[in-house]
Amino acid sequence: MDNDFRSKHAKSYILMRRIYDFSMSSLILGMAVVMFFGAKFGIMQFVDVDPLFRYLFGGICLLYGGFRLYRGVYPNY
Question: Domain range spanning residue 54?
């Protein structure tokens, strides 16, 4: 009985972490897209920002979002 409870708890924890990793990766990758293409989309808040900062922050978001996506696809919890 106790083993069955732990197994269900572990499966639900893994499912929750995968959903969290996929949702966070989509948000962070979306932020990277906005940083890279904000001027083309016409978002005025990002047009006035220094291009070096936009591309640097977009690159960091792209790397971290890719890492979160990798963790969601290949869970190792």
Answer: 2-73
